[in-house]
Design goal:
Glycine--tRNA ligase, Herpes Virus-1, 16 helices, binds adenosine-5'-triphosphate, 3 domains, 24 strands, BirA Bifunctional Protein, domain 2, ligase, Gly-tRNA_synthase/POLG2, ATP-binding, Rossmann fold, about 500 residues, ATP binding, about 25% strand, alpha+beta, five-stranded mixed β-sheet
C-alpha cells in the first residue's frame, strides 16, 4: 500500500487536498492521471449499467438538498457513528476504529468485558454500540490506548455523532435557512422518482443510475482514499414490484460482481457478506456487502447492495397511510407528491421496492490500482513497476514518442501521428517528447499506458534499413514485445487492441 500511495503522488494520480497549507484530513485531489482513471471507471460503470441495459435511466441531482429530504430519509436522526472522547487530551475517535486499532490482547479484554468473543469483531462493535455505559467501562478496564499519544486513555461514554455537513443557504443565517450536503446520492434519485417516471413513461421494473459527490464528516478519515470526507458514489436505485425484490437483489449481486471482474477486480478477492439482521441499516430488508481484500487493510466494503424495501419512497410520499406500506416509516406531512407507480399486474398504484447497488468511486480507484500494481524482475535482473490496468481504464491509451526531442522532423511526425490517433476517440493520447526513451518507457509502465509508439530515424527514412521507412515501433506494456507497424495501419492496429 505504501508503495502505491507513493506512486500515486509521484506520477500525478492523487494528491492530499489543500496540501500547500498543510493538508486537510479526509480530502484528496485527483491529479492529471487520477482524473483520467476516475473518469474511465465512471464511464465503464455508466456504459454497463445504463447504456447496455434497457431498463435504466440516468440522473444528475444537486448536491445540496432541502433539510426536509434528509429529515424524512431518516438521516437527521440516524446517520451517525458512535464517538468516544479521551478526556486526557480531548481527542475524539470513532468507537469501532479505536478498538480495532488496539493490540490483540486489549481487543480480547474489551470483547470479554462486553460478553463477546474477539473472533467476532462485528458482534463486539454491535455490543459496544448498544450499551454505551458498559462500553466506557470496558474501554477503561481493558486499558485501551489513545492512538495519538500511545498512552492509556480516560474514555467517556460513547455518543452518536451525526456525519452530515450542514450549510447555510442564502444571505440570512437563521434556524430555517439551512440545508445539507448529501451524504449519499440516493436521496436525489428518490426525490426525482416522479419526475423521471412522468418524463420517460417508465413502468416497473426499472432503475435510475447516478454518479456524484457525497459528503460525510467521518470522525476518523483514514487509509488514504478508502475513508474520506468528500467521496464519490456510483448508485443505482432499482424499482420493482413488491414480491419480486428478492429475485432482483440476486440479479444485481451477480451483475455487480461481473462488473468488478471486468475492471480487473476478481471475484476471488471479494467476500460477499450477508449482513446479519441485527447489523442492518434502518431501511434495509437485506444487504450484501462486497468486501474486497485491500492490501494492508484486509477485507473492507467496496460496495453495498441493499434491499431497501419500500422504505425510501414510503418515507418521502404523501398519503402514507393509504398506500399499504411494508416498511415502518415516520409520518410525513411535508411532502407534496404521491410516489406511486402502477403495479405491473393489477395496475393499482403501488410504492415499489428498491434494490440499491451503491459503490464508492474512490474505493474502486484504490481496488483497481491495487490489482494493477505489479513489480517484475526483468531478464537482465532489473526491477520494473508496471500498472497492469485494463486498457479501457488506462489514463493514457498511447504515448507517441519521438526518439530525439531536438530533431524537428521526428517531433513533427510524432505530433501528427498523435493528432490522428486522438481523433479515434479512444481516450487520451500523449505526445511524450520529454527526452530519454528509456525513461519514457519506465514512466509509461508505471502509469499503465498500454502502448508506446516510437518514431525513430528509420521511420523518416534516415536510418540504416530503408524497408522500415513509414513504420513505427509499437511496444506492448505487458509483454514488452516490440512490433514494427506501418503508419498507415497504425489506427486500425491500435483500435483493435484497445477496443
Ligand atoms: P463504511 O461501513 O465503510 O463506513 P458504509 O456502509 O457507511 O461504509 P454505504 O453507506 O453503504 O457505506 O455507502 C456505499 C458506498 O460508498 C460504500 O460501499 C463505499 O464504497 C462508499 N463510501 C462510503 N463511505 C465512504 C467514505 N467515507 N469514503 C470513501 N467511500 C465511502
Amino acid at each position: 500500500m505504501e508503495e502505491l500511495v507513493s506512486l500515486c503522488k509521484r506520477r500525478g494520480f492523487i494528491f492530499q487536498g489543500s496540501e500547500i497549507y498543510g493538508g486537510l484530513q479526509g480530502f484528496y485531489d485527483y491529479g492529471p492521471l487520477g482524473v483520467e482513471l476516475k473518469n474511465n471507471i465512471k464511464a465503464a460503470w455508466w456504459r454497463t449499467n445504463v447504456y447496455e441495459r434497457d431498463d435504466m435511466e440516468g440522473l444528475d441531482a444537486s448536491i445540496i438538498m432541502h433539510r426536509q429530504v434528509l429529515r424524512h430519509s431518516g438521516h437527521e436522526a440516524t446517520f451517525s457513528d458512535p464517538m468516544v472522547d479521551n478526556k486526557k487530551n480531548n481527542k475524539r475517535y470513532r468507537l469501532d476504529h479505536l478498538v480495532k486499532d488496539q493490540k490483540a490482547d486489549v481487543i480480547t479484554k474489551v470483547a470479554e468485558a462486553m460478553g463477546q468473543s474477539a473472533e467476532n469483531f462485528p458482534a463486539v462493535v454491535a455490543a459496544l454500540n448498544a450499551n454505551p455505559a458498559q462500553a466506557a467501562g470496558a474501554l477503561r478496564a481493558a486499558g485501551v490506548r489513545d492512538p495519538f499519544s500511545g498512552e492509556v486513555g480516560e474514555w467517556t461514554e460513547p455518543k452518536p455523532f451525526n456525519m452530515m455537513f450542514k450549510t447555510t443557504i442564502g444571505p440570512v443565517a437563521d434556524d430555517e435557512s439551512y440545508g445539507y450536503l448529501r451524504p449519499e446520492t440516493a436521496q436525489g434519485i428518490f426525490t426525482n422518482f416522479k419526475n423521471v417516471v412522468d418524463s420517460t413513461s417508465r413502468r416497473l421494473p426499472f432503475g435510475i443510475a447516478q454518479i456524484g459527490k457525497a459528503f460525510r464528516n467521518e470522525i476518523t478519515p483514514r487509509n488514504f482514499i478508502f475513508r474520506v470526507r468528500e467521496l464519490e458514489q456510483m448508485e443505482i436505485e432499482f424499482f420493482c414490484a413488491p414480491g419480486t425484490d428478492e429475485e432482483w437483489h440476486e440479479h444485481w449481486l451477480e451483475k455487480r460482481l461481473s462488473w468488478w471482474e471486468a475492471q480487473g477486480v476478481p471475484r476471488s478477492k471479494i467476500e460477499i457478506l450477508d449482513v446479519p439482521k441485527e447489523d442492518l441499516a434502518h431501511y434495509s430488508k437485506r444487504t450484501y456487502d462486497l468486501m474486497y481484500d485491500y492490501p494492508t487493510l484486509g477485507h473492507e466494503e467496496i460496495e453495498g447492495i441493499a434491499n431497501r424495501s419500500d422504505y425510501d419512497l414510503g418515507s418521502h410520499t404523501k398519503n402514507q397511510s393509504e398506500l399499504g406500506l411494508v416498511a415502518r416509516v415516520e409520518e410525513n406531512l411535508d411532502s407534496i407528491a404521491k410516489l406511486t407507480i402502477p403495479h405491473p399486474e393489477t395496475n393499482k398504484p403501488v410504492v415499489p421496492f428498491v434494490i440499491e447497488p451503491s459503490a464508492g468511486v474512490d474505493r474502486a480507484m484504490l481496488a483497481v490500482l491495487s490489482e494493477a500494481f505489479t513489480k517484475e524482475t526483468l531478464e537482465n535482473g532489473n526491477e520494473r513497476i508496471v500498472l497492469k490496468l485494463r486498457p479501457h481504464l488506462a489514463p493514457i491509451k498511447v504515448a507517441v514518442i519521438p526518439l530525439a526531442r531536438n530533431k524537428a522532423e521526428l517531433v513533427d511526425l510524432a505530433r501528427s501521428i498523435k493528432n490522428d490517433l486522438q481523433k479515434l476517440g479512444l481516450g487520451r493520447i500523449l505526445l511524450e517528447d520529454s527526452g530519454n526513451i528509456g525513461k519514457a518507457y519506465r514512466r509509461h509502465d508505471e502509469v499503465g499506458t498500454p502502448y508506446c509508439v516510437t518514431v525513430d530515424f528509420d521511420t523518416v527514412g534516415k536510418g540504416e534499413d530503408a524497408s522500415l521507412t513509414d513504420t513505427v515501433t509499437v511496444r506492448d506494456r505487458d509483454t514488452l514485445a516490440q512490433e514494427r507497424v506501418k503508419i498507415s495501419d497504425l489506427s486500425a492496429y491500435l483500435q483493435a487492441k484497445l477496443r
